[in-house]
Specification:
Strand content: 15-25%
GO biological process, one term: methylation
Family: Belongs to the class I-like SAM-binding methyltransferase superfamily. rRNA adenine N(6)-methyltransferase family.
GO molecular function, one term: methyltransferase activity
Pfam family, one: RrnaAD
Strand order of the largest sheet: 4-3-2-5-6-9-7
Number of domains: 2
Structural class: alpha/beta
Distance between the termini: 40 Å
Number of strands: 9
Number of helices: 10
Shape: elongated
Helix content: 25-40%
CATH superfamily of the largest domain: Vaccinia Virus protein VP39
Largest sheet: 7 strands, mixed
CATH architecture of the largest domain: 3-Layer(aba) Sandwich
CATH topology of the largest domain: Rossmann fold
Radius of gyration: 21 Å
CATH class of the largest domain: Alpha Beta
Protein name: 23S ribosomal RNA methyltransferase Erm
Length: 272
């Protein structure tokens, strides 16, 4: 195994950040909040060290025991280095910010876990460029993004070229910023997410055909909703914004319940 400073262990999927401008951009994005920071996949401390200079408490999680040990010797009293797995590390039960240069092959698993954690306010993550774009709805949103949009806002402040990492990955990266909304756009998470799944997997040449087939909207209601929002009948689920999804959910809820039942009981819980 390589002992060079940026010789990441292949089996851990490590591509270390080396570009000072990208490091500064991540730190700037994290400065939107105050309070504790949790860094996932800390590596050799490219982000840990500048983050620690803010004086905020930092917990740096690193799977490689050698790198964790070296990093612990290089950091001050406000940094706790933890030898652990980013997919298993228990996040604090107080408001905090998550930062990380995620191993690209663990991005989806890490995001799914983060979405279900309750206390973080902001996450600033380095991920594959295509993942960053899809999460932010650039060029079309994915089912995962639509499922969580009522609770989180997504943005991509910068693209990160592959040469900013060592070893150099096969694809570019991007800075993905996820901020928890102060007030969610939807109350019933389980019902809404089942609705999104049904729309994304529904059959039809566009939403005008897909929506009635889900059984939640009549064809007329679907056409009227699309016209009101200036959307083509051939628009696809990926073309909708967070506000579109919330509006569509509430319309479907109203049509389903006829205002006679609370939102929390209108739809079944999603399948595990």
């Amino acid at each position: 195994m390589s002992a060079l400073p940026y010789g990441g262990r292949h089996e851990l999927g490590q591509n270390f950040l080396t570009d000072p401008a990208v490091i500064a951009a991540v730190c700037t994005a994290a400065s939107r909040t105050t309070g504790p920071l949790v860094e996932l996949a800390a590596g050799d401390g490219a982000l840990t060290l500048p983050l620690s200079r803010t004086g905020r408490p930092v917990t740096a999680v690193e799977l490689d025991p050698r790198r964790a040990s070296r990093l612990a010797r290089r950091t001050g009293a406000n940094v706790e280095v933890v030898h652990g797995d980013l997919l298993r590390h228990r996040l604090p039960d107080v408001p905090h910010t998550v930062v990380g240069n995620l191993p690209f092959h663990l991005t989806t698993a890490a995001l799914r876990r983060l979405f279900r954690q309750r206390h973080w306010e902001l996450a600033v993550l380095l991920v594959q460029w295509e993942v960053a774009r899809r999460r932010a709805g650039i060029g079309g949103a994915s089912q995962m993004t639509a499922s969580w949009w009522p609770w989180f806002e997504f943005s991509v402040p910068a693209k990160v070229p592959a040469h900013a990492f060592r070893p150099r990955p096969a694809v570019d990266g991007g800075i993905l910023v996820m901020a928890r909304r102060p007030e969610p756009l939807v109350e019933n998470q389980a019902g809404y997410q089942e609705f999104v799944r049904e729309v994304f997997t529904g059959r039809g040449r566009g939403l005008a055909g897909i929506l009635p087939r889900t059984g939640h909207l009549s064809a007329r209601a679907a056409r009227n909703w699309l016209a009101r929002h200036r959307l083509s009948p051939q628009a696809l689920p990926r073309d909708l914004t967070a506000e579109h999804w919330a509006s569509l959910w509430h319309l479907a809820l109203h049509q389903r319940t006829r205002c006679s039942a609370p939102e929390s009981s209108a739809f079944p819980r999603p399948r595990p």
